Amino acid sequence: QVQLVESGGGLVQPGGSLRLSCAASGRTFSNYVMGWFRQAPGKEREFVAGISWSWDNTNYADSVKGRFTISKDNAKNTMYLQMNVLKPEDTAVYYCNAKLGAMNYWGQGTQVTVSS
């Protein structure tokens, strides 16, 4: 059974930093595309950043380019999202995603709140 478990969310002031983690288990994730998505209250879930599990190709939403960095540790089966210079508009529930063709898995989400 595939499990994606996010951690690292919390309350941070504008300009601050957080690092989210996504621990993946239940299968081999070779060839999967891993990603972070977020959903703010009253808004649709949106893409934040993605990375290939087998290679280091990354891509980012324009709104987070230069501030967020996605990375992974294959040995630990863990993906990360380093978030710097956080803004109030980054406030959302952040979800970990693993996708390969029709197989699409989600974590339960972790809340990130950026407020003074």
Commentary on this structure:
The protein is an all-beta fold and 116 residues long. It contains no helices and eleven strands. The protein has strands spanning 3-7, 10-12, 18-25, 33-39, 46-52, 58-60, 68-73, 78-83, 92-100, 103-106, 110-114. Strands 2, 4, 5, 6, 9, 10 and 11 form a seven-stranded mixed sheet that branches. Strands 1-3-8-7 form a four-stranded antiparallel sheet, with no helix packed on it.
End-to-end span in angstroms? 40 Å
**Largest sheet data:** 7 strands, mixed
- Mean pLDDT across the residues is 95
Q: In DSSP terms, counting alpha (H) and pi (I) runs of 4 or more, how many helices?
A: 0
Helix content percent band: under 10%
Q: What is the molecular shape? A: globular
- Count of β-strands: 11
Helix and strand succession?
Answer: EEEEEEEEEEE
Query: Poorly predicted ranges (pLDDT <50, ≥5 residues)?
Result: none
User: What portion of the residues fall into strands of 2 or more residues?
Assistant: over 45%
- The chain-level structural class is mainly beta
Q: What is Rg?
A: 13 Å
Can you summarize this structure?
The protein is an all-beta fold and 116 residues long. 0% of the residues lie in helices and 54% in strands.
How would you describe this structure in keywords?
0% helix, single chain, mainly beta, four-stranded antiparallel beta sheet, 54% strand
Give the helix/strand layout:
Blueprint lengths: L2 E5 L2 E3 L5 E8 L7 E7 L6 E7 L5 E3 L7 E6 L4 E6 L8 E9 L2 E4 L3 E5 L2
Parallel strand pairs: 2-11
Antiparallel strand pairs: 1-3, 3-8, 4-5, 4-9, 5-6, 7-8, 9-10, 9-11
